[in-house]
Amino acid sequence: MPDSVVPTIREAGAPYEFGPGTLVDVFLHGLGINRERTAFSVRQEDGEWRSWTAAEAAERIQHISAALTDAGLEPGDRVAILSNTRMEWALADWACIVSGLVVVTVYPTLPSDQVLYILKDSGARAIFVEDGDQLAKVLQVHDQLPDLTSVFVFDPPEDDGGADHEGIRVRSLNRMEASGRSTPRSPPDWAESASRVKPEDTATVIYTSGTTAEPKGVMLTHHNLFTNTVGASRVLPITDADRVLSWLPLSHAFERLAGHFLMWYSGAEIAYAGSVTTVARDMVEKSPTFVIGVPRLYEKFYDAVMESVRAGGAPKKAIFGLAKKIGDRRADRMLAGKPVGRLLEGAYGIAERLVFTKLHERTGGAVRYFVSGAAPLSAEIARFFYAGGLVVLEGYGLTETSPVTNVNPPGDIRFGKVGPPLLGTEIRIADDGEILVRGPQIMKGYFGRPEATAEAVTPDGWFHTGDIGELDSDGYLKITDRKKNLLVTAAGKNIAPQPIEELIARSPYVEQVVLLGDRRKFPLALVVPSFQAYRTAFPGRPIDEAVMEELAEHSSLQGLLDEEVLARVEPCARYERPKRVLLVGRQFSVEGGELTPTLKVKRRVIEKRYADRIENVYQRVEAEAEPCD
Is the preceding omega at residue 187 within 30 degrees of 0, hence cis? Predict the structure, then answer.
């Protein structure tokens, strides 16, 4: 790869100097590592996994890029992608990138009215959609989208060869590739692509989840994502011998950077899970060495292990308890940089054979590192994995920061913290506790919203994250909560709900929890009971979703959760402890409007939805409630 094409990356593995760069540079770097390496793998309907080399993927990307040009799209035009995570998502993304187009990501779980908002606000001229269901969303609102001219379908309901739908041309991805293949532009002139795209060009517009306000389009430049990719590669030891299982939404900045750009740049194989529900199966079949996940993945893994232990009887509990104790002792010495010792190492070997090997088998047996982001990970769960020989590297960032700002390095992990900042990134804590970030990954701004941009980024480049946190003496960052989530009691006490919710959520009887009580005399825990809670409260009774809502207010279930929640929050300050538990029989969901596409709780929606029941609880206990400290 000549220096004239990639000026800041001279060869695979070369030391990185922060200078101007683009995602085309990232693409060429990954392609240059080994063109015959396996780049992508996908499970077929017959259960076999099919692979594509980097050279084969690059050829398909070139054909799609040529077809986009033939469709009249020009550099700077916005092109949306509305699909679940899959190889075609990655191919479409790279094709747009090398063509100088701006990719607008759209969550496939969004209803048509929210799809309309994003496409209209961004002025998208074309869109890739996954299948007939997503196509229907677009066609339902296309008459309100004057800029939209083309729709490209990964899995079309029928291959119509490019039919018009009231002025909108619909083509299958297969026909796009065939058209691009017939265009006399082979071999691809990647050097021209690299020189055409500039570091300051907008590469993507990603819309925020909108927990408290209307979604805003975050503009990230090529240089933002280039520096974040290369900076993350300096911390995460990924090579072309690694394999990652990709299953999180590529619409989200976290998976797109960590599971897509970073893995291609490092030469790793990307295996695409069939869906969220097949992750456990696909992990065993593909034996990934890296797994990118969110805390919920690790929580469910932990809960499944603990449920198995509880159901295994006294002998199994005793063996597990002893193995965990040995693993914790070994972990403490390793984290402190002390020698483990032959006796402890020998005991760990026995514990590994009896208990921990089974944990590794559940993850495919080859995982070197898990990476956790998008939300805080419980220190208890991180320690549990570490004690079992499965290392979770927790990081932090936001869409506006491309997204990574911090990550725990493999050689110096600190549970409950998200690590030091990436190279070139500055972190400071404002007087009110808010985390401020400055660095090459800070967004260009919010699309079409200069005032909102000015509010978020200071003239000297500091971005207001909206999160509350602390820095230790070594520069490791600890996230306390979202600034907007802080509760202020009637007595003026500040409560950060996130750590308290985390304590409560660790109960096997709790599926979801939200702490409420802003400007009230005491906090209230709104809880969605788990299936196990219903089974415990109503032994022998058939339980399904149809009866959960009916039984949610039953005294047996209420008593069980009251006792459980109050026990869990005992370590908290008196004024932080919820004094009442309100049970809800229906889970919060994206479809129900209580969660964002990234599974963040929309507190205002929940408060409004259950306002009457919440008010009744406070009215009933107002006279008897003890004053808070």
Answer: yes
The whole-number average pLDDT for the span 528-543 is: 84
Nearest to 414 by CA among 304, 303, 337: 337
Three-state secondary structure of 19-51: CCCCHHHHHHHHHHHCCCCEEEEEECCCCCEEE
Strand spans (E) along 4-124: 38-43, 49-53, 78-82, 102-106
Contact 86, 52 (CB under 8 A): no
Domain ranges of the chain: 23-32+44-197+236-258, 293-365+367-483, 486-621
Of residues 444 and 341, more confidence is placed in 444
CA-to-CA distance for 91 and 442, rounded, in angstroms? 26
Whether 348 and 327 have beta carbons less than 8 Å apart is answered as: yes
Phi, then psi, of 42 in degrees rounded to 5: -135, 135
Interval 9-29 mean pLDDT: 66
Three-class secondary structure assignment of 353-366: HHHHHHHHHHCCCC
Tell me the pLDDT tens digit for each residue of 147-165: 999 999 999 887 555 566 6
Question: 433 phi and psi, to 5 degrees?
Answer: 95, -5
Given a contact cutoff of 8 angstroms between Cβ atoms, the answer to whether 367 and 284 are in contact is no
Distance CA 470, CA 473 (A): 10
Residue type for position 314 = A
Helix (H) or strand (E) holding 393: strand 392-397
Q: Please give the full DSSP string across 276-329, using - where no structure is assigned.
A: GGGHHHHHHHH--SEEEE-HHHHHHHHHHHHHHHHTTHHHHHHHHHHHHHHHHH
For residues 395 and 407, is the Cβ–Cβ distance under 8 A? yes
Structure tokens at 286: 């593909």
* Mean pLDDT score of the chain: 86
What is the predicted pLDDT for the residue at 550? 78
293-365+367-483 and 486-621, same CATH topology? no
Instruction: In whole angstroms, give the CA distance from residue 426 to residue 418.
Output: 14
CATH code, residues 293-365+367-483: 3.40.50.12780
Kindly report, residue by residue over 246-296, the tens digit of the pLDDT: 999 999 999 999 999 999 999 999 999 988 889 889 999 999 999 998 887
Per-residue pLDDT for 11 more than 60? no
Alpha-carbon dihedral sign for residues 268, 272, 277, 283: negative
- Contacts (Cβ under 8 Å, ≥6 apart) of 173: 64, 88, 92, 128, 152, 153, 154
Buried b (16+ CB within 10 A) or exposed e, 84-118: bbbbbbbbbbbbbbbbbbbbbbbbbebeeebbbbb
452: exposed, middle or buried (C-beta count within 10 Å: 0-12, 13-18, 19+)? middle
**Position with higher pLDDT, 285 vs 551:** 285
What CATH homologous superfamily does 486-621 map to? ANL, C-terminal domain (3.30.300.30)
Specify whether domain 23-32+44-197+236-258 bears CATH 3.30.2010.30: no
At 335 the three-state DSSP class reads helix
Q: Bigger pLDDT: 162 or 316?
A: 316
CA 61 to centroid of chain Cα atoms: 25
At 130, the amino acid letter reads: E
